[in-house]
Amino acid sequence: MKPTILVLGGGIGGVSAARELSRKIGNEDGINLARILVFEKEKSSLYAPSLTWMMVGKREEKQIYGDLSDVELGGIEVIHGEITSIDPEKRTVASNGTEYKGDYMVISLGTKLTDRHDLSRYGHNFYTSGGASSFYEELTQFEGGEIAVAVSSLPHKSPVAPYEAALLIDEFVREKDIRHKAGITLYTPETEPMDFASEEISEKVRRIMRQKDISYKPEHELISAGKNRLTFSTPGGQGATAAVPFDLLAFTPGHTSPDIIQEAGLTGTSGWVEVDMQTLETSYDNIYAIGDIISLPIGEGKMLPKAGVFAQYQADTVAHNIARKIRGKKPDKTFEPKGSYILDQGDKASKVDGSFDDGNLTIKTSSMIRHWEKILAEKTWFLKNF
Ligand SMILES: Cc1cc2nc3c(=O)[nH]c(=O)nc-3n(C[C@H](O)[C@H](O)[C@H](O)COP(=O)(O)OP(=O)(O)OC[C@H]3O[C@@H](n4cnc5c(N)ncnc54)[C@H](O)[C@@H]3O)c2cc1C
């Protein structure tokens, strides 16, 4: 009997896993050695790294979504609809009133985004395409005043995105020749930019922000929001708070694991799915989890950042090992948290690169080539998968 693999989620991790599974198992058009079912509630798949470009009018909605029907090759079938429950004991999922059973399961359902302090009444959640595009509409009308980029809570996916957002907004208002009339401030509960990295990297990012005259407010924990005003608890002593005005607000939402994952008892003490660091297998046999939904400790109490680059490497690792198991061979690939992350500034970009578990990371100086590297990564994603 042909094995069935259930891939939960058709975002960056899920699409990568399905594609890699099909390739590594040896599915071809007409000869499918395994059935790969991808479950996705949306009609198309969002490439979130391009949302920061959408905020400043460099991308439109149609450019940052992939049509999931294009993924249906090599034994891959897309089941459209919301997964309503998961039973890890039976290795089944329910969607559209039907129960699907798999021999293997790869969970890549990402994060549930929450609206903390009712922020969407006052600003734009740029972690969604709706929020990124409504921010851009308001930005085009902006003639001067205070622009706030606020990180509403930790953890959030893409540790770089709020910095990139502030830098791209800076470029936009400079090009509009209103930079002298615009204040740009980034508020975050983090102690340092990208605090998973080294002090040197944090300082370089701070320097880039200073050069662009972007005000950086770390250790600012959002406690309430209102019309044109945010209130933070601040590091200035016990009980210190600051109420700050803004005219235009972009914010990151709260992040939790999806309800169905919690209901299935798949979350650990971290609140996220806990997996074997090397194989990404959960405590259930043949059930793997990858991408933003997992929490991987990388030492000193830090967690691996939630990033698409890791979701893709994890998809590759899991697909390799499932393909070997199907052939009756021992799984032999382990996930290594190595990779690179680009911080785009518009005309140029810098790159954080290296090994995330031993802190052996470097930051490459800003250059136009790195900006093109980020564009190339986006183009490759769509060409390879859709
Ligand atoms: C603004 C921004 C900028 C970013 N920039 C970068 C970057 O430069 N580099 C980088 O590496 N990463 C970046 N990221 C992070 C990257 O997008 C994520 O880490 C990546 O998408 C994680 O992949 P995933 O498969 O875990 O989750 P997702 O891509 O979020 O996919 C999860 C999928 O599951 C689906 N789903 C959820 N629940 C259900 C359900 N019940 N039923 C059916 N389907 C469901 C969702 O609709 C979604 O399609 C950025 C993210 C944002 C928001």
UniProtKB/TrEMBL annotation:
Domain of life: Bacteria
Alphabetized InterPro entries for the sequence: FAD/NAD-bd_sf, FAD/NAD-binding_dom, SQRD
GO-annotated molecular function: oxidoreductase activity
Residue span(s) of domain FAD/NAD(P)-binding: 4-302
Coiled-coil region(s): none
Pfam families: Pyr_redox_2 (PF07992)
Name of this protein: Sulfide:quinone oxidoreductase
